[in-house]
Amino acid sequence: MPDRTDRVAQQLWGFVYDYDAAYERAARAVGLSTAQACLLKAVADGPRTMGEIATELLCDASNVTQVVTRLEARGLVTRQPGRADRRSREVAITAAGAELDRSARQAFRFPRERIGRLSADDQQTLSTLLETLAAPDS
Amino acid sequence: MPDRTDRVAQQLWGFVYDYDAAYERAARAVGLSTAQACLLKAVADGPRTMGEIATELLCDASNVTQVVTRLEARGLVTRQPGRADRRSREVAITAAGAELDRSARQAFRFPRERIGRLSADDQQTLSTLLETLAAPDS
DNA sequence: TATTGTTATACTCTATAACTATA
DNA sequence: TATAGTTATAGAGTATAACAATA
To answer: Which chain A residues have a beta carbon less than 8 Å from that of B118?
Structure first.
């Protein structure tokens, strides 16, 4: 592997490090852990079942149960039996949850600030590169 | 904020999401948590004090104490009183720790695989963009 | 008196295994 | 019998406050 690739990999590590740290701070700033903020984001566009959330968040269903329980206790989400399959549960965001989700997104200024440093052309170039970089494995 | 910026921000979120997941899997694959892998990496280039590690890892010193205690119990790092200031402790990586650190880096193929998709020219372009994106705030 | 690190404690995240309810 | 979710439990990460040792 060439030196060049290594150098870019190192730059990328540093950038992701800062990105993650900024997200963590944004979540904290509005009183959420990163796991809670991610779950809220996962149900922001509409109700999801526990299983769908577990898949989205790449974690175990029992984990989702616990995080949802805490968010529910704070009135940020609700948990209702599914209509079709009554074994499942639909997790829906509440008005308060949606408000907090918006606050968290606003507090996470990092991506907009960093991307905003680039010219329109450079943003387009980055977007094109990311299309290649982000494409799934196989 | 223009649509374009939003779109790039969304692509970036997805990429960082996959990056973090891949790092977590690589660490697990060699029997480490991400926190442990990061600490090992932090002392891979030479001994560091608890305080230095806490600063590097953006966490509390009491946290470092606990992670180091676990790594020390597994023989991956040692903890010695500092020579100059005897209040401080020098955390040094052991041969076994260095070996595991190397394994973890190797298992983390994600960045090399993704960057390797780009031509040499595109890698250079990405590197230049990252220079701007990664520069500190002020 | 100030600083470095540890201890005690508490909360959250996370997974595994056993369980309940429904299909 | 299989699946969706929960409960019980346990280990790890994380921070705050009180503390010990050293400066």
So the answer is: 129, 132-133
Class (C level, CATH) for A3-109 = mainly alpha
The dotted CATH code for B3-114 is: 1.10.10.10
Q: Is the pTM of this model over 0.85?
A: yes
Chain B CB contacts of A134 below 8 Å: 11, 14-15, 18
Residue with tokens 């990061």: B38
Burial of B118 (0-12, 13-18, 19+ CB in 10 A): middle
Residues of B with CB under 8 A from a CB of A: 1-2, 4-5, 7-9, 11-16, 18-21, 58, 111-118, 120, 122-127, 129-135, 137
Numbers of helices and strands, H then E, in chain B:
7, 3
Contact between chains at B122 and A129 (C-beta distance less than 8 A): yes
Looking at residue B137, the DSSP 8-state letter turns out to be: -
- Write out chain A's pLDDT in tens, 138 residues: 679 999 999 999 999 999 999 999 999 999 999 999 999 999 999 999 999 999 999 999 999 999 999 999 999 999 999 999 999 999 999 999 999 999 999 999 999 999 999 999 999 999 999 999 999 987
- Nearest in space to A50 (alpha carbons), one of A64, A69, A35: A64
Locate the domains of chain B by residue range: 3-114
Tokens for A130, please give them. Answer: 């990311």
